[in-house]
Amino acid sequence: MYYENQKPKKRYIIVFIICLLLIILLLFALNLKFEKVNFDIQKNYNTRNLVAENVIVEENNIVNKIEEASESIVGISKLKQNGTSVFLKDAETSLGLGSGVIVTEDGYIVTNQHVVGDKYSNCYITLENGEIYNGNVVWADSNIDLAVVKISSAKLKYLKLGDSDNLHLAEEVYAIGNPIGFEFQRTVTKGIISGLNRTIKIENDIESTYMEDLIQTDATINEGNSGGALISKEGYLIGINTIKISSAEGMGFAVPINIVKPIIEKLENTGKFEEAYLGIYGYDKEVIPYLNSNLKLDSGIYVAQIMVDGPLFKSGLQIGDIITKVDETEINKMNDLRKYIYTKNPGDVVNLEVQRNGKSFIVSVKLGYKG
Prior knowledge:
- The protein is of the alpha+beta class.
- The chain folds into four domains: 1-68; 70-150, Thrombin, subunit H; 172-260, Thrombin, subunit H (Beta Barrel), CATH 2.40.10.10; 274-370, Pdz3 Domain (Roll).
- It is 27% helix and 33% strand.
- The chain has six helices and 20 strands.
- The protein has helices spanning 2-70, 91-95, 113-116, 261-270, 288-291, 334-342; strands at residues 73-77, 98-102, 108-111, 122-126, 132-141, 146-150, 172-177, 187-203, 208-217, 229-232, 237-244, 252-256, 275-277, 280-283, 301-306, 322-326, 329-330, 349-356, 359-366, 368-370.
- The strands form four sheets. It has a six-stranded antiparallel β-barrel with strand order 1-2-3-6-5-4. Strands 7-8-9-12-11-10 form a six-stranded antiparallel barrel. Strands 14, 15, 16, 17, 18 and 19 form a six-stranded antiparallel sheet that branches.
- A hairpin with a 2-residue loop joins β16 and β17 (329-330).
- The longest helix is centred in the first third of the chain and has 69 residues, at 2-70.
- The termini are far apart.
């Protein structure tokens, strides 16, 4: 009788021990899960803090880079100015006010041609420290509205050149210039790249022209900003502000900086730039719809004009021909051709691959000199 009563008690003990072990295991599992939740919470908290810290660091870096870049922005005027211009009616026109960007330590400045005029023109350059220098235009091209001015100075703070061929839509950019007058010099506005390879039709009393391959931005650009810098968030010069659409808000345009790189490099290395001359003017596929809606152009440059004083006038090239390559380098924009020719010297021979009526042929030409 005694042994029979012991069996149930043993079973209860065994069940109790098993339940106790299960409870212990359950509590252990819950504790692990609780610790994991705490770890995840702490991890997310640390991650958020790290992201916030990185954002702050990046913003501080951008601020520092833009502040440094602004020191390389200059004021430009065609007339020597003393006093204020902010209340002067039409100050940009009457004083010839604009902006420029120092791009070399020894005083080469890039700006707009419409700000400083043609080659051999003179202007006045005001540096960030208030010093005023006489500026001489050493190169200019009205077709792309760019010019290079030289001042006699050394050890200047200059802006490093970026790569305008590697830009993307919605990329953050900053415009720096002197809107209205020198009272608001080095004004910074922020925006994004709204468009690439834009074409703008420019009309005046004499003729209509087209500016191609422009960078479109919504960073605020006013008239005095002409010739100022369009800068990437890394602090590199990617364009020269040139024009604003007055009939629309938030539509400004800049000339890509890569077009003028070969010129700056030659001026910096040799102190001079002798411009090689091809003597044609052409349009890319973005402009053709303005000229002839029936003409289809997928690639290359449509030859629209051949200068009578140019080396190609008696080469056999005709208006309407399509230039697809220069020395085996494929070209699809007039600026591609310009950049390539800027790397050459007068007297160099280049080979153009031309298409006419579905057939291809080569035109060899000895480059002239554009004085």
